Amino acid sequence: MEIVITPDYGSMSRTSAAIIANEIRRKHDLVLGLATGDTPVGTYRELARLHREEGLDFSKITTFNLDEYLGLAPVHKNSYNQFMWENLFKHVNMSPHRAFVPQGNTADPEVLSEWYEQQIRKAGGIDLQVLGIGRDGHIGFNEPGSSFASRTRVKGLYEQTIKDNARFFASEADVPRFAITMGVGTILEARKILLIASGAGKAEVCHEFIEGPVTSQVTASALQLHSFAIVVLDEEAAAKLKRKEYYNWIRDNKHVVQKQIGR
Ligand code: PGA
Predict the structure, then answer these.
(1) Catalytic residue chosen out of the listed positions 46, 68, 117, 143
(2) Coil, strand, or helix at residue 197?
(3) pLDDT attached to residue 257
(4) CB burial of residue 207 (10 Å; 0-12, 13-18, 19+)
(5) Are strands 67-69 and 178-181 parallel, antiparallel or unpaired?
(6) How far apart, in whole angstroms, are the C-alpha atoms of residue 154 and residue 68?
(7) pLDDT tens digit string along 219-257?
(8) Which residue in 1, 27, 50, 228 sits closest to 129, CA to CA?
(9) What count of Cα atoms within 13 Å lies in the side-chain half-sphere of residue 256?
(10) On the chain, which terminus has fewer CB atoms closer than 10 Å, C or N?
(11) Catalytic one of 51, 138, 164, 234
(12) Which residue puts its alpha carbon closest to atom 8 of ligand 1?
């Protein structure tokens, strides 16, 4: 994993947006996996700015969101579908037909989950998957104990996740208890992975998934098994990393090697 520590939320957002923009410029029909939550809001704002001011073209890309609350219709104000439209899709020239979010109010979650996996395969697989991380170490809604082989399916939310996400709802009781989420296995098949994290509340879990053992108790630790994963985090989220100096040294010196191999 490449660990990129940035000073604050703003620079984390600009750095991660620059990585995504670079991939879109390299491949105009990129298949992009997307995440929701507070963390990527700044990244999406910066991508919208790059579209507006620098003509970053989203017209040929396909997106797949990681997850959606079970039972919420796509038009529900708390749905992740709405989140994506508010925070990114309506600000760029995306084709609505190629913006996939699991349908939360599906009559048959099992059929929907299989269909979602098929759509990912039909699109040629995910080129770059953007991830946030929950305080319990989840990626998507793959709560502690999720198999690393898991595919898109319904997952029950962990108590801490329900508490953390209550801020978006009228009360904790209103937070759906289940979600449809890509599995850890689905996520690991993405060609590249970008995980972003911000704030002191994520410091402990960032240490755990980056420097601790690979375990389904911290599903983000599965990224240690991926051949191309970048983690962009701010100073607060990086505060408990033991090998911070090493990561910073790599960040500041990798251009030397890149120059030598002519990249
Ligand atoms: P957050 O959520 O960005 O709102 O902290 C991250 C997550 O739960 O994956």
Answers:
(1) 143
(2) strand
(3) 77
(4) middle
(5) antiparallel
(6) 10
(7) 999 999 999 999 999 999 999 999 999 999 999 998 887
(8) 228
(9) 5
(10) C
(11) 138
(12) 134
Count of helices and strands (H, E) across the chain? 8, 10
Sign of the dihedral through C-alpha 143, 146, 151, 155: negative
Q: Where are any strands of DSSP class E within 9-118?
A: 31-34, 62-65, 67-69, 99-100
Kindly report the backbone phi and psi dihedral angles of residue 167, in degrees, each rounded to the nearest multiple of 5, phi listed first.
-60, -20
d(CA 169, CA 160): 15
Residue 263 pLDDT class (50, 70, 90 cuts) = very low
Residue 57 a catalytic site member:
no
d(CA 224, CA 178): 27
Residues facing 231 on adjacent strands: 3, 195
Catalytic (active site) residue 159: no
Task: Please say if the pLDDT value at position 23 is more than 90.
Answer: yes
Q: Tell me: the pLDDT tens digits for 40-62? A: 999 999 999 999 999 999 999 99
Ligand 1 pocket: which of 43, 133, 182 to mutate (most atoms within 8 A of CB): 133
Ligand 1 mean position, distance from CA 198 (Å) = 9
